[in-house]
Amino acid sequence: MTQKSYYPKEAEFKVQWHHVDADGKNLGRLATKIAGVLMGKHRPEFTPGVDLGDHVVVTNCEKIAVTGNKMIDKVYFRHSNYIGGLTETRLRRMLRTHPERVLEAAVWGMLPPGKGRRKMITKMRVYKGPEHKHGAQNPVPLA
User: Fold this and answer.
1) CATH, residue 52
2) Residue 90 lies in a domain
3) 14-48 in b/e burial notation, b at 16+ Cβ within 10 A?
4) Residue 40: left if φ>0, alpha if ψ -120 to 50, beta else—which one?
5) How does strand 86-90 pair with strand 75-79?
6) pLDDT higher at 143 or 122
7) For residues 16 and 53, what is the distance between their CA atoms, to the nearest angstrom?
8) What are the helix (H) ranges across 83-141?
9) Between 27-39 and 99-110, two packed helices, what is the crossing angle to 10 degrees?
């Protein structure tokens, strides 16, 4: 007698939409929760090689909270690929100018490296302010 093993397929599962209000939430803890939902770790059928993740809509990303001296000490780097083209931006300024990028960078770093990372990050939508345009998908609040 042989025992059959079960391997989940993406087509078998219904994709769900989740809504997160980032107002006053800690950046790292929120990014961890979102990364888990994008990977599909909240499902009992989780399998690392299969994309079973759900979509996440985040609002009020400009009101995110950080602990300690991260507003002053945390630095984001980017390079223009020209000589001397390294630019550094502090977290305080990044939250003023592009608050969406702060949460996207945090979640990007928490997703597993490889081809699936780009596909997973496209399921996250981040908005400045309380309004979003995904009401038709009926997003449920993320606990």
Assistant:
1) 3.90.1180.10
2) no
3) eebbbbbebeebebeebbebbbebbbbebeeeeee
4) left
5) antiparallel
6) 122
7) 8
8) 91-97, 99-110, 115-121
9) 60
